[in-house]
Automatic annotation (TrEMBL):
Transmembrane segments: none annotated. GO terms for biological process: regulation of DNA-templated transcription. InterPro entries: Sig_transdc_resp-reg_C-effctor, TrmB-like, WH-like_DNA-bd_sf. This is HTH luxR-type domain-containing protein.
Length: 212
């Protein structure tokens, strides 16, 4: 462990858990930003504990859209949202961070030799700066329910089914009863939302994420 004033660097989740388990146990407000649910497994209680943890704690979690592409992870998010957690999806890159009671910040670092480092910050000035970055990203995110609703608003289910089938644009537009230009515009919007590089990939990812 390296220590500089009120900034502590730990190596690996085992050491992180050892150093911070008591903080998670007593926290009343937890804010989390991550690419997916794997970064912060230390912060994920086991299944029997999840419902109680969410009910007794103010929880905000923010992820990239890719988290919805894994049915298990998407199911976890829906479970958390159902039991009181506020979940948002952001299409912008995030700094993987956890904030506890606005007093402690934990920032995920890089993998070195197969082990990830984590920086635990308790300096009020630094925590306030990290909190401000989180709040800005949170304000630009979209609530999980609203994010998924965008698919419905665009007639996404039908369009995604056409994409997954691999049919031509003209055929798909005719089947849906819309103009070719309208169909292509909606396809472009859906691909952007899904972070897909191809139309077939957009359909496949939506199906994997339970969006179809």
């Amino acid at each position: 462990m390296e220590r500089v004033s009120d900034v502590v660097v730990v190596r690996g989740e085992a050491e992180l858990f050892e150093r911070t388990a008591h903080l998670f146990a007593t926290a009343t407000e937890i804010s989390c930003a991550a690419r997916d649910l794997h970064t912060w497994s230390v912060a994920h209680p086991t299944a029997p504990e999840r419902e109680q943890a969410v009910r007794t704690t103010s929880v905000r979690k923010m992820y990239l859209p890719a988290v919805l592409f894994d049915p298990a992870l998407a199911g976890h998010l829906r479970f958390m949202a159902t039991h009181g957690a506020r979940i948002r999806i952001t299409e912008r890159e995030v700094n993987e961070t956890i904030l506890l009671d606005r007093r402690i910040a934990i920032v995920a670092g890089d993998h070195v030799g197969g082990v990830r480092s984590y920086t635990v910050v308790s300096s009020p000035e630094l925590v306030q700066g990290i909190q401000s970055l989180f709040e800005a990203a949170w304000a630009g995110g979209t609530d999980l329910e609203a994010y998924q609703a965008r698919f419905t608003e665009l007639g996404a289910r039908e369009i995604l089914e056409q994409l997954a089938s691999g049919c031509k644009d003209e055929t798909a537009a005719r089947a849906l009863g819309v103009g070719l230009r309208t169909y292509r515009r909606r396809v472009a919007e859906l691909m952007d939302v899904l972070g897909a590089s191809s139309r077939f990939q957009a359909g496949a990812r939506a199906r994997e994420a339970g969006l179809l």
